Amino acid sequence: MSEKTFALKGDICYSKSPGELRILRRGYVLFRGGLCLGAFDSPPAEFGEITVKDYGDSLIIPGLVDLHTHAPQFVCRAKGLDRELLEWLESTAFPQEARYGELSYAEAAYKHFVADVVNGPNTRMCLFGTLHVPATKALMDMLEESGLVSFVGKVNMDRNAPAYLCESSAGESGDATVAWIKETLGRYRNVSPILTPRFIPSCSEELLGRLGSLQKGYALPVQSHLSENLSEIEWVKQLHPDCSCYGAVYDKYGLLPEGGRTIMAHCVHCPEEELRLLKDRDVFIAHCAQSNVNLSSGLVPLRSYLDRGMKVGLGSDVAGGYTTSILRAMADTIQMSKMYQCCGHPEEKPVTLKEVFHLATAGGGAFFGRVGRFERDYEFDAVVIDDSTYNPLIELSMEERLERAMYLSEGSHIVQKYVRGREIK
Amino acid sequence: MSEKTFALKGDICYSKSPGELRILRRGYVLFRGGLCLGAFDSPPAEFGEITVKDYGDSLIIPGLVDLHTHAPQFVCRAKGLDRELLEWLESTAFPQEARYGELSYAEAAYKHFVADVVNGPNTRMCLFGTLHVPATKALMDMLEESGLVSFVGKVNMDRNAPAYLCESSAGESGDATVAWIKETLGRYRNVSPILTPRFIPSCSEELLGRLGSLQKGYALPVQSHLSENLSEIEWVKQLHPDCSCYGAVYDKYGLLPEGGRTIMAHCVHCPEEELRLLKDRDVFIAHCAQSNVNLSSGLVPLRSYLDRGMKVGLGSDVAGGYTTSILRAMADTIQMSKMYQCCGHPEEKPVTLKEVFHLATAGGGAFFGRVGRFERDYEFDAVVIDDSTYNPLIELSMEERLERAMYLSEGSHIVQKYVRGREIK
Predict the structure, then answer these.
(1) Phi, psi (deg, nearest 5) at residue B415
(2) Mean pLDDT of all residues in chain A?
(3) Do the Cβ atoms of B296 and A350 come within 8 Å?
(4) Across residues B61-88, what is the average pLDDT?
């Protein structure tokens, strides 16, 4: 009990479950040593002396979690979005990523990315880097310094990629990955490595096998892409005719480790068998609504994923998406869920504000452990939003304030962020 | 030739046609007395002495036009968007509009709306007010003062509305409208009245007839809503079983005057006959992509409207939409056009950046006359965007810069706006 106890005072709101908000007007959320002690109408005596930071009528919500984004593509976001996935990779993403072979470019570019995220509402992220180890380590160093919590992946790709962005062999890719793991695993307080095969078409079978071994050997989590685009799915089928679905290829090589250690981004066009596999393997789906629109990937049957009890979080997927903010991802998720219903699925009710807030906090947070709620022994991540400037001349319930915060908040409205109890803005 | 000639220097881009951008890097766009003289690589000698305002590498584009929005709903934007149109009107829009019966509230609230638009990229608008004449006049006074150019409508509604927001009779509504027209027509330099029946369900036949007479008598333009939502369309069918489609009701009462004097917002679910009527009557469609999503109205076959040569501009439709910016409306239009293709219409190519830029400038601008291009004798409206802050470490073509300006610009990036040659920011 040597550490001090703190409280943030304000209008507190967090998701207890997909259907339930907990709301405390002018309440207190307590934390000590980076861990939450709970949210209360008034501070309980049991916690002794408390240092209170009073944020007035500001909204205080858990930090938002981005389960899928590409840090190197940030500087080329909002570019070339008239193409679908495979063409866009060739025209826009790959040439941009190649520049990270030059460390000084990487350092300059990642600085913009990290500054943007620090300025926004996200507190945790799962990130793709590039295939370059020095650049990826530079990104990890910067993220550690920022106080944000993240998993970061050195990307693996040894085939079906332009020569300027392709590792020369599975051996080279695997060896570089081992060296990178040894240098980064356990090195940081806030940053951890995650295995990151780009996607099935980019990885030879030998490389997939090697990554599967590394997963076992180092007990690392895994992130990749799955069933995003119809042409991509067809390509995977041609490359792996022995596998019954796209997801089965990852599974064949041991890349869907159980225990909630895997994130698969997109999952737009999953056949029934693939969904069962993801559920069996306890895989997190990173739902990337904006990217799925920008690259014309399609609308996702998100309601049915929730009904099945799939694990789902939200992803900004920069630069298929053009904004890092998970508040915007929440809005896009609701909007595209409405369009899914409009387009021939009248029985599938759109996801609600409460549900999408849950996905953005506790949903994605679960990948990081006990994260995303203001409850005892959860890690303490919080975002303080001054919503007074866009709420003049109107009376609002707390749920309505949350709705408006989702649609209307910009970086300037976020007055403070806490990650593991530390102020980071 | 007593007036001075000015030029803006910068990276100029405007739409010559839906398929063609005109681009001048470090070019000059000239204007005099509120009218454009054209865009040039260097200032032609024929114009004599010119005062040049150099905006460096900033983008200079024509002012953006918002063909449909509800000024009184601005303060309640981003609220209650889990409902469809008719429910949302009852729960959110109508109670908000009722507050404008109090002039002091209206003045305070409209101030926020006008400030937001001045800060953004729009230079011209077609606006709904409320049914209240004093509040609507206050809005017109503020808009005049701002320098923005607008059509503003006192709303007519005498049935199927809650008692707190319903005119007591067609006679009262019509008389108030006449009084309002007499006070406002020709009074302003930048603001003009426009006839504004809310939508068919809100207006008795007697009122529709009276408005039709006023249209003829005063040669006024008309704005309303059309075929936005399936329940609304069904309701109109029940109210007017003699009319073959929703649009035919407006036409029956003389409210689709020819000559490009009418705007119909939404047009999501128009049957073939209705589209033919709109084309025959030279009606402008205000395409409101974000609102159509937020209120689950549906996806619009926009490609087919363009192929038919319909007149189309963009609308923010606050507060079905939650942002006034027509840059955001451009992005939403492209996104929803992609989703329309994805959802069962593979033959309908999404609208392109060039096309949507055309709709946002010259497309909507045509409702105001010669507006939306940097060409001789067009009215001179321009927006200067400093896009340097979000374009570090990347080389971009002018078209790519326009794409990024659409997706990434916020108010702070808009360094100056000109309307009819006057600086207004």
Answers:
(1) -90, -25
(2) 97
(3) yes
(4) 97
CA-based nearest distance A316→chain B, Å: 14
Instruction: Decide: residue A398, CB within 10 A, 0-12 exposed, 13-18 middle, 19+ buried.
Output: middle
pLDDT at B118: 98
B276 with B352, same domain: the answer is: yes
In A, minimum Cα distance to B100 occurs at A393
Same domain, B39 and B77: no
The share of chain B scoring above pLDDT 90, in percent, equals: 98
Q: How many domains does chain B have?
A: 2
Per-residue model confidence (pLDDT) at position B2: 64
Interface contact B343-A341, CB threshold 8 A: no
- Read off the CATH number of the domain in which A379 is found: 2.30.40.10
* Closest C-alpha among B202, B183, B206 to residue B193: B183
Rg of the Cα trace of chain B? 21
How would you classify residue B243: left for phi > 0, otherwise alpha for psi between -120 and 50, otherwise beta? beta
Give the count of Cβ contacts less than 8 A between chain A and B: 108
B406 CB neighbours in chain A (<8 A) are 78
- Closest residue in B to A352 (Cα–Cα): B82
Answer yes or no: pTM beyond 0.95: yes
Contact partners, residue A257, CB within 8 Å, separation at least 6: A215, A216, A221, A222, A281
CA dihedral A265, A268, A273, A275 (to 10 degrees): 50
Q: Does the pLDDT value for residue A1 go beyond 60?
A: no
Which tokens is B179 given?
């009084």
Could you tell me where the DSSP H helices lie in A286-415?
A: 289-294, 302-307, 326-342, 353-358, 364-365, 398-408
Domain end call among B327, B346, B368: B368
Q: What's the CATH number where B300 sits?
A: 3.20.20.140
Cβ(B160)–Cβ(B201) below 8 Å: yes
**Max CA pair span of chain A:** 65
Closest listed residue to residue A184, CA positions, set A226, A127, A224? A127
Q: Report the relative pairing of strands A196-197 and A155-156 from DSSP bridges.
A: parallel
* A interface residues, B as partner, C-beta within 8 Å: 75-82, 96, 105, 108-109, 112, 293-294, 296-299, 322, 334-336, 338-339, 341-344, 350, 352-353, 392-394, 396, 400, 403-404, 406-408, 410
> Are A343 and B338 inside 8 Å of each other by CB?
no
Among B79, B334, B352, the residue with its CB nearest the CB of A400 is B79
How close is the nearest chain B Cα to the Cα of A208, in Å? 32
A108 and A156 fall within a common domain? yes
* Domain boundary residue, one of B329, B349, B368: B368
Cis peptide bond N-terminal to A78, omega within 30: no
Name the pLDDT band for A2 (thresholds 50, 70, 90).
low
In this structure, what token pair is assigned to residue A336?
Answer: 């595209």
Q: Quick one: A262 and A386 in the same domain?
A: no
- Smallest CA–CA distance, residue B296 to chain A, in Å, is 6
Shortest CA distance from B229: residue in chain A:
A342
**Together in a domain, A236 and A377:** no
Residue B73 shares a structural domain with residue B179: yes
A5-17 and A20-32 beta bridge pairing: antiparallel
**Same domain, residue pair A136 and A255:** yes
User: Which DSSP string corresponds to B142-187?
Assistant: HHHHHT-EEEEE-EE--SSS-GGG--S-HHHHHHHHHHHHHHHTTT
Q: Of the candidates A359, A365, A368, A364, which has an alpha carbon nearest to the alpha carbon of residue A330?
A: A359
A276, containing H or E segment: helix A272-280
Q: What pLDDT does residue A26 have?
A: 98
Structural domain of A46: 5-62+373-423
Contacting residues for B322 by C-beta, under 8 A, at least 6 apart:
A407, A408, B77, B78, B81, B290, B294
Strand partners, B13: B23
Instruction: Identify whether residues A333 and A408 lie together within a single domain.
Output: no
Average pLDDT, rounded, for chain B:
97
